[in-house]
Amino acid sequence: MAHNKSFLIAVDFDGTIVENKYPKIGEPITFAFETLKKLQEAGHRLILWTYRYGKELDDAVKFCEKHGIVFYAVNQSFPEEVFDPRVSRKINADIFIDDRNIGGLLGWGETYHHIMNEEPEHLKPTKKKGLFSFFK
């Protein structure tokens, strides 16, 4: 089912946008930048969500800019967010794209298809199942 809603999408860097060569920057993963550009063109806002900080984070942001991606926010839920150490650092996003997902990273083409043609799983109605249906 196609939708018109725009999503806030948190995207990891190492192992997701580029090959994992941390603290160096690896080669871009096939179709990563092309897919991110298409998602932005469709109105989705992208957050760079990464372990990197300081110079290594600055280098990653510049690398992405060089490849045509300017993020809505970097390691925060929105550009004006001020870090408060008393508050969780979990990013507020509708979708997370990360190579450490259970099952690993989908290919970028499949990721694009899921976002553009389907509601994210957590927004779909779910059927209630009994506790032991998980084990069947």
From TrEMBL:
The keyword RNA-binding does not apply. InterPro entries: HAD-like_sf, HAD_sf, Phage_SP01_Orf1. The keyword Hydrolase applies. Keywords: Hydrolase. GO terms for molecular function: hydrolase activity. Coiled coil: none annotated. Gene3D superfamilies: HAD superfamily/HAD-like. This is Hydrolase.
